[in-house]
Write a structure and sequence with these properties.
Strand order of the largest sheet: 1-11-10-7
Structural class: alpha+beta
CATH topology of the largest domain: Aspartate Aminotransferase, domain 2
Number of domains: 2
Radius of gyration: 21 Å
Bound molecules: pyridoxal-5'-phosphate
Order of helices and strands: HHHEHEHEHEEEHEEEEEHHHEEEHEHEH
Distance between the termini: 34 Å
């Protein structure tokens, strides 16, 4: 490969970042300290407190989801959403092979097994057309249940994910879920602030999950939330995330083995202060994406990943896509950028290749494999644009 191609990529990134830069870091420029201090001064730091209620109300108002249940992190939110969706031990759950490992781990926590499907190249998310033909060829109805005809396991849920904040074809996937009566849980951990046809991601399916981990667009240190429009599901989610305690003035009665998954007030305080700045964060991220887009337009053989049609993406994490599809070519760029202080990362290793998931049922993953060789994530924190202003 020509050294000048690598050099031009480093240059394109640094014209936007104005020099060395990390991939993503949080920015605290609002009322974070005020709200967190208030928790400490009043003693309300743990799983009960006004900020926990407030973050749920604020997220409900912002996303349009009728009910929101705040949790300790996005992974626990996914876990409990799958439990409430009815996922049981020995079931299979359909998951994109191209995702962060937590999507599959949440399935494992239920005693179930991920069943990996491919993604489409444009959205980098689950491909509705391919999913439909896959289900048609793979499932058989046995006494009212859809079973994988090869493994014999019941297919209990479908978990699409909105990669790097770019919405996948969620309407198409929800339609397939309805057709088969299989619950859909949206992994919207990366897509707070992303909309498809004007509707917020995470609100299309029965349940959707957000994350407020330190590297996400809005952080609470650690935290997550489940979105749903169904009041019955919301009650069960709240109950299961708060140790399944039956309300009583003094007695400790728990009616099932629940989880201690409630978001602490301290984290909720941070989340509330961050959410107040979300519109500004999105504006900065979209500007950064535009500047990257211009910088890469001049270079043959690479392009910036854009939001899909009819979508408004939060551009949480920018990615470039190389025309070339050899891993060594990608690795040379990763080496050159990181050597010069510009932090870049490859996309996640496809989950089906990880040791604990290698024996799972997997369909053709051509697009996943190609994208893994083509994608490189580039610095995308909110601090970037200010740095060069
Ligand atoms: C971050 C993330 C999660 C998990 O969220 P945590 O809050 O880190 O537990 C799940 N799925 C995807 C796609 C993510 O990016």
């Amino acid at each position: 490969m020509s050294g000048s191609f690598v050099e031009s990529i480093v240059k394109a990134i640094t014209t936007v970042t104005d020099g060395p830069c990390v991939l993503h870091e949080p920015v605290f420029r609002g009322r974070e300290l005020k709200y967190v201090t208030e928790c400490i001064e009043t003693g309300w730091v743990s799983s009960v407190g006004s900020y926990v209620d407030r973050i749920e109300q604020d997220l409900s108002a912002y996303t349009g989801a009728k009910h929101v249940v705040a949790t300790v992190n996005g992974t626990s939110a996914l876990h409990v959403a799958l439990v409430v969706a009815g996922v049981k031990p020995a079931d299979e759950v359909i998951v994109p092979a191209l995702s962060f490992v937590a999507t599959a781990n949440a399935v494992t926590y239920c005693g179930a097994t991920p069943h990996f499907v491919d993604v489409e190249t444009e959205t980098m998310g689950m491909d509705a057309d391919q999913l439909l033909s896959h289900l048609e060829g793979t499932l058989e109805s046995v006494s009212g249940q859809w079973r994988n005809r090869t493994t014999g396991s019941r297919v209990a849920a479908i978990v699409p994910m909105h990669t790097f904040g770019h919405p996948c074809d969620i309407e198409g996937i929800v339609e397939i879920g309805q057709k088969y009566q299989i619950p859909v849980v949206e992994d919207a951990a990366e897509s707070l602030g992303s909309f498809r046809n004007g509707q917020h991601t995470g609100t299309f399916a029965q349940m959707g999950v957000l994350s407020f981990n330190g590297n996400k667009i809005v952080t609470s240190g650690g935290g997550g939330a489940i979105l749903t429009n169904d009041s019955v599901l919301a009650k069960r989610l709240k109950h299961l995330t708060t140790t399944a305690k039956v309300s009583h003035r003094w007695e400790y009665v728990h009616d099932q083995a629940g989880f201690n998954y409630r978001m602490p007030n301290l984290n909720a305080a941070l989340a509330c202060a961050q959410l107040e700045q979300l519109e500004g964060f999105i504006r900065v991220k979209r500007e950064t994406a535009e500047r990257y887009s211009r910088a890469f337009a001049a270079i043959d053989g690479v392009s910036l990943v854009h939001e899909p049609n009819n979508c408004m993406s939060n551009y949480w994490l920018n990615a470039i896509r190389l025309d070339d599809t050899t891993e060594s070519f990608r690795n040379e760029i990763l080496a050159a950028t990181n050597d010069s202080g510009v932090m870049t990362r490859p996309c996640w290793t496809p989950i089906n290749r990880l040791p604990m998931y290698q024996s799972c049922y997997t369909c053709n993953l051509d697009n996943t494999d190609t994208l893994f060789e083509q994608l490189i994530n580039i610095p995308s924190g909110v601090g970037i644009s200010q740095a060069s202003e």
